[in-house]
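Changelog-adjacent note: as of this version, every example in the card shows the full chain rather than a window. The one below runs 598 residues end to end.
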Amino acid sequence: MEVVRKSKYGDEVRDKAKTLYLSGLTPKEIAQKLDINGTRTVYNWINKDGWNELLSKFDLEKQLEQRILLLTHRDMKKPNELDEIDRLIANLIKLQDANTRIQKEKLSIKEREANLDKGYCPAERKDQVHSSGKKKSGRKRKNDVPGIDDPRWQQWIDSLYSYQKIHFDARHLKERWTLKSRQIGFTFEAAGEALYVAVETGKNQTFLSASKAQSLVFRSYITQLAEKYFGIELQGNPIKLPNGAELRFIGTNRNTAQSYSSDLYIDEACWIPKFEGIYETAGAMGTLKDRRITVFSTPSTRSHGAYRVWSGAYWKQGNKDRADIPFPSKETLRKYPQLCPDKKWRYVVTLQDAVDGGNPNIDVDDLKERCGEAAYAYLYDAEFMDEADSIFTLSALTKCIKEDMWSDVDLSAQRPIGDHPVAIGYDPARTGDLARCYVLAMPLKKGDPFRVIEEFEYRGFHWSWQAEQIQNLTTRYNVQHIGVDCSGIGSGVGEMIKAFFPQVMLISYTQQSKQSLVLKVMDLVSTSRIKWPAEYTSIAPSFLAIKRKQTGHGTMTFAAERTEETGHADSFFAIAHAVACEGLNVAMQRTSTIRVNL
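Full-length structure tokens:
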């Protein structure tokens, strides 16, 4: 008689373990958080249930970014967690290097076949030099980065794509401004460049970012470059080099920013609140004639202070002699980066430019399908948004952005925010088979804000899997509300959710329901009663995509139809579905909550 041994862990524990694994936790962390006796059990579940097959549907870079984001959100990071962040960044760099080598080998083969001789060093020989250059001494040196005449620096430069090299070659200019697409490796280049210049000149380097988490990414790129190419472990914050140069990583505190004489790097400038004040104050770092200012960003709106600098309006203001002086167009700056009348060097890099510049990691057609034409223009084609028809202003949205995650939230914990009530909003896929889900902490008293805790992107998964992920959230959070659009293909997920959460709000889109959702979010934004961490960069552009529109009958409505053309507003709608739990008349809402799924 065959004896079937039953696991002492129930399906609920197993489902929680799967959710944690897909969200980026290691088997060891899962075992500790769920009180599982050893990691072998978790590994058995992974292999038996095919969790890695689910995980493999995510892009590799997406998996690494998800784990990095999870770790950077943790307060009081342990040394091993900081080490893991560095290792993850190292893997991203290795992935980029590998793709670069493959691309260069392909180009080299084409050149040889065409009998071209442009003086390029064969990729095989570069790899041999790289391997010999990485020989390490008996023990790692700390912060003793070799001089720029060391051939290993050239190996790093050779790893850059052509558009990154253009920026690097302009490093000696007083002030550089680059308008760029998302996800093309500019932070990687800027981090390496800053270390190079610090070694070359002994000048301090300061990184001013829209969030502290972004500063951590800067620092990790730098430490991994030193480890990868020189076998050196960089330590400290600031990082102090033997020649006296210091590399500092700060947020957007203008008082901190003005304290140093330094070269200055400003990342995502077009998304920094009150930018002009910070730019003027932090720019004091570059007062001395040998200090440089480097600014690069994806575009936001034409009302942002950074646009005034980019367009030349900041330089022309109050000076009649400058009023009619033209500045180069975007298309000109894509082909010919140059010094402009205000003595700032400008450069534009679109996603297509990155592909043409040798980056093999981008699928332009896929992104165009997922985003829609309008969203693609400002996310990847370096186009500023016009707020004229938008129901939101960037200045109002930036007041809703918090630099870091809240101190009472630990996304790696079994109960990330304890028994605090939360609302969940789900927006089904419309373009590129993409869906979004947000978890928001609900206000406990009148006047408190909704707080975005977690965001999820589901792509390529069946409805039942997506419903299962939402069900898993009900075991991690004290869920009071789930809002789902059921007017189209979301009906399948909605019905599945109803089976385990009967009080789910199934939203059928009509002119009236759409207007109510938009008006509710408008009210929250105008009173700053909704907040989200700066790392969730898709939220603000999604809000700005909601436009005013006149109907054929002459009445005003909102261009928020649920179609492929407006699918890029999925973050807005998912959040709108979550905050629908409160209703428009807040004064009449009850303040008590119920406890479910505990």
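Structural remarks: The chain is about 45% helix and 15% strand.
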